[in-house]
Amino acid sequence: MEKVEYLERFYRRYKATPILMRRAVGTAFSIIDHLQHVDFADLTFTAFAVCAGNRYQELVRPFEQQIELAKVKEEYFVEHLHDFYLQMARKIRKDPIPYFELLAFMHDRVFAIPIIDRDKTEFHVYCAYMNLVVQMGDYIHPNQNDYNEHIVGIKTDGKLICRQEPLPDLDIATYDYERQIFKNSSDFLAAIRRTFSRYGYSISSEAELQKHNMVLRTYDNNILMMIPWINEYTYDLLPEKLPDPNCLMPKSIKMDYHPDKKRLAQRRRTLPSNGVSIKVDGNSLIEEIYMKELYHAEAIYMIARVRMKAGDYSVRFNTSTGACLSTFLDATNANVARLHQLLEASTLWVYGSYVLDDDLGKWEDYFDGRIVEKEAIGGKLRAVYSSKKTDKDNLEQNDRTINGFVRKLPTGQKASDEARDRAEKLGFALADGETYVQSFIRSSWVIKGRTRADASAKTTR
Description:
Number of helices: 13
Strand content: 15-25%
Structural class: alpha+beta
């Protein structure tokens, strides 16, 4: 059965299909499309393996069951996925942190190896699983009536961070257009003009619609790959400038840096507390690279926003595994795949130039253009995201960051086994007489005007 047929059935049943239900139907069909290529026995084993070892098994199991249901009872799965999300949302809203930890775990598991390099079964099951879990985010939104606002991160205190879509109502207009075509397929040009004009868009052809949808999909994918790592200190790393879907990688562009990821895992320094930023002149694609480090789930990540002439793109690098992710990672088009190579090479060169003792040379040794501005942003940790209202007007936030670092011990002392294990896991090599101090963020709410010594504080690690 076609997706629009299901939507028509929901329209008749509910008279007006809820926005979340429409999106759930779209997700359901995407999952079914992937799973039709997979044998059930292989699907069951692979779906279990995706999150094997994750500590939130009570949260994981219902998603595994939905994946199996999608294979054996397609129609039932489509018609009841919305209800499943509503039921799960009631549990997740009570404590959303495990859901975001699960999402982060899946990101690292799914993209540890590029999806295109996995076998056929893994490719389709992993894609289906990610689609299922990611769509859950719409259902835990604090205001489900604002369907143009989406979750983009989570604060260290567990509160959700949201942002408005840059192309509002576009997916809703697309659903309505598909419905119009389903009812009268011969008049698609009139339907596309009429439908999208109601939502404020001047679109008169399928090609224009595909371009708009490509822009929104690319923007959303850049957001989705960052959500578990975005908090009030990393919010400004989210993309702002909309991507150009026609972005091309010139064949003549210079890209001679080949990052040694194992060497980056053995660094002895960290970035300044508020990150680093460079601006580039003379490069046909890259204008600016802005990055920070984040300690999360027992690993240190470098996360970056690369501002290109064709829009903002996100990059995430796990220093422990060496996995470097951008939205172009799994591209089958050779030109687009080279865009990922450029994002990876340029960000890891900047990162290495700050955290390694190695002399990596100058930007122009490896890439077109030159660095015209460089800023290491140290000092007090800055909360770059704030909610519209503070809990109390007489409180101010006092944040400190304790970045991980290698510290010399007094003569005769040695690092504990725990410190050595932690350092080794995070890629720091300890010499005799050294220990590793773990990084964490400390956030305190204090009464304005009081000194730190007599302020009452709540600490989050």
